[in-house]
Amino acid sequence: MAQRPGIFPTFFLSGFECSCFLWKDQGRRDLVAETRHREHAWEDYRLLHELGIAVAREGIPWPMADRQGKYDFSSITPFIEAMKEYKITAIWDLCHYGYPDDLDPYQPAFRERFGAYCRAAATHIRKNLPGPYYFTPINEITFFSFCGAEWGWVAPYGHSKEERMRFRLALCHAAIEGVKAIREVIPEARMIHVDPLVQVVAPRDRPDQAQAAWHETYVDTFLAWDVIYGKEHPELGGAPDILDIVGANNYSFGQMEYREHGPHAALPPDDDRIQPLCELLKTVWERYRRPMIISETSGMGKGRAAWMKDVTEEALAAVNQGMDLQAICLFPAVDMPDWHTGKWLHNGICDMVEQDSDLLRVQDQDYVAELRRWQKELNRVTRLDEDPYSDPVELNDVIEAARRLQKRPDKDWC
After folding, report:
1. Which of 56, 89, 205, 219 has the highest count of CB atoms within 10 angstroms of its CB?
2. 258-272: per-residue pLDDT in tens?
3. Which keywords annotate this record (predicted)?
């Protein structure tokens, strides 16, 4: 038995882009269809099996599964069958930026329908897959509230800070109801509430914007987690056990220079105002003292391997400082298109190559080599065995590696 078993069977996780929003000028989008993940489900999950990754973030598309309270989960059947074959466990995203057309997020029926849908989804998953069970009720509530209620990218197409605040609280309330509904069906289910790590700084020539930048970094970034934890708006029913596991997404564009109107400007990699990832994680840890994962992270293009090196070293620095960091999710497993342009981002473990009306998966060999190097360094498996849960991940291996390597927080993002 492991001296300190991890929450997940492997330290490195992955996942698949599964957004299903109403996009501003294109109607309903289905990123699973755009990446042909359903058609390639067995290939995509075989990839994770062969890479020694036993957990994947995967989505159930609420708008497609819930037709006015009648449920059809057939869209995830290919994933379930592939998971069974390749011994992969899912973290199920139940709302990934999309909700049914007939719902108004500002009405009580929104959270009521979401709770009923979560209950039905949990029942379906428990019936068709063995445990353990992990869920993310609503993905990136903070970012969803920006792109849906201030920037107007996705439904409900709001355009003000006041609408953003209102939408965010509605999403938090629904997420809390969703957790309670899931646990009625699967009391032992674990919840991972995912939001981005953010640092916003004022422009060098606008010190008058420093307070607004600080507020966004230290208040806005945490409000959804605070509500789910019960620190803020306790009347919505949040509690520490509902927050459960904190999922912190880390991308280069999460550190930004403040802009009063519209999305902020990402800091360039050599900007001296960048904070090390370890320091951002420390802020989260000290606020909640809950288990954490880096729930999404990836570099771009030829920088993917270097990005993984930096992120893993920062994660080990965090572990060495006593933070309960359980996993790193290399997201996505296969490439995804830019929402705005449709161009491939080249941020996956595999790139997409268009050939004969199909999308071939081509591994980024440098990225895979870096994953292999860290799996060996941390005494992790490089390929899943018949039962990934027969030998639980030993977090002491990760802790001992962190002590041995003595990595320090570093602003250099390569």
Report:
1. 56
2. 999 879 999 998 999
3. Glycosidase, Hydrolase
